[in-house]
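PROTEIN DESIGN WORKSHEET
SECTION A - STRUCTURE
LENGTH: 342
TOKENS:
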């Protein structure tokens, strides 16, 4: 496997990654949100290989990544004014626009839908690779399906070593959880997945914006097919622990007599668990939702490495900022399991 350091001056390596992609190979690339498992979006066979490598269900569509906002028009039709407004404001950046697709997008990318999700990532390295490939890149998160997304090159190596031709190393992801996915094909723009661009930022540009609930039953028809699958989850079961932190500490201390427990908590809470058998994994300050977003997936992966039998997680308070995305990922990792301490 070729590991490519993505320093942008390292033109030969970026060019090599581009060549591999043009030849139909799958390459892991950095973005500001999470690492992506990329292939030529216009090449059905290359895209099929992404599904194979990830073990991804075929009915879950992929996001297409472009290096220039203007390329949107090559991939989509009936583009509403709202798309231009959002692209103007937030691209390059962690926002995916769902729009009517042109025929150039193969069905395998859109999982048979007549729409496609498109985004222009922010880092120079991501855009340099797309430009070097000379084609738009379909890319889901570069993890094995169902597990936590990768936010550092070592996460990608752990999941995909030997399965991809190259990993472009762009260091740690600055946002740390996935892009916001917004559907612009309906009357009121609707957030299908909260992410790096917040609901309040979207409302500032568009006025009215709806948000889909994260809780979706498996058999329900869903607008974003990815929403119905188990997601972001380590091997041990995750439970959300709601309530005052000193109660939480007592509850987990008792429980840790019989179980090997890790708690994913705020840095401010860590010391309350000292002197117990509970392993603490602090994922950031409760006052810094962006820090929580950056630390979350690494914390879920760390919990896996500890071989614990139960993982508990503390949720930030909800607002309209990036904490919404943190809550969404944790609730999904927990399969909506909650313990509320009274
Ligand atoms: O930040 C991100 O978006 C990362 C990086 C690599 O760009 N990618 C990512 O891809 O998170 P993935 O495949 O892990 O998640 C894509 C989500 C899924 O929930 C999928 O169902 C939804 O976007 N999606 C993609 N195309 C869609 C479409 N046409 N309509 C509705 N939902 C769509
Ligand atoms: Mg994913």
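SECTION B - SEQUENCE
RESIDUE ASSIGNMENT:
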């Amino acid at each position: 496997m070729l590991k490519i350091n993505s320093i942008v001056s390292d033109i030969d390596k970026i060019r090599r990654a581009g060549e591999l992609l043009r030849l139909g190979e799958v390459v892991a690339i950095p973005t500001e949100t999470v690492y992506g498992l990329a292939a030529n979006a216009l090449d059905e066979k290359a895209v099929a290989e992404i599904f194979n490598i990830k073990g991804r269900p075929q009915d879950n569509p992929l996001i297409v990544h472009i290096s220039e906002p203007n390329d949107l028009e090559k991939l989509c039709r009936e583009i509403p004014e709202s798309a231009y407004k959002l692209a103007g404001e937030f691209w390059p950046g962690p926002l995916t626009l769902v729009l009517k697709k042109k025929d150039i997008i193969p069905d395998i990318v859109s999982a048979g839908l007549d729409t496609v999700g498109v985004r222009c990532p922010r880092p120079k390295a991501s855009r340099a690779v797309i430009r070097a490939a000379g084609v738009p890149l379909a890319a889901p998160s570069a993890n094995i399906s169902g597990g936590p997304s990768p936010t550092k090159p070592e996460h990608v190596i752990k999941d995909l070593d030997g399965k991809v031709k190259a990993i472009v190393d762009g260091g740690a992801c600055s946002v740390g959880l996935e892009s916001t996915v917004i559907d612009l094909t309906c009357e009121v723009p609707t957030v299908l997945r909260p992410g790096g661009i917040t609901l309040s930022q979207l409302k500032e540009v568009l006025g009215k914006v709806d948000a889909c609930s994260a809780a979706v039953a498996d058999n329900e028809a869903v607008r974003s097919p990815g929403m119905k699958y188990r997601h972001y989850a380590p091997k041990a079961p995750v439970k959300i622990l709601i309530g005052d932190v000193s109660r939480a500490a007592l509850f987990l201390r008792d429980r840790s007599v019989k179980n090997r427990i890790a708690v994913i908590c705020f840095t401010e809470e860590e010391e309350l668990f000292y002197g117990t058998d509970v392993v603490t994994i602090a994922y950031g300050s409760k006052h810094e939702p962006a820090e929580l977003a950056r630390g979350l997936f690494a914390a879920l992966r760390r919990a896996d490495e500890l071989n614990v039998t139960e993982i508990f997680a503390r949720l930030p308070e909800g607002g309209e900022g990036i904490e919404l995305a943190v809550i969404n990922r944790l609730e999904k990792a927990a399969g909506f399991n909650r313990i509320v301490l009274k």
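SECTION C - NOTES
The chain has a mean pLDDT of 92.
The CA atoms of residues 98 and 117 lie 4 Å apart.
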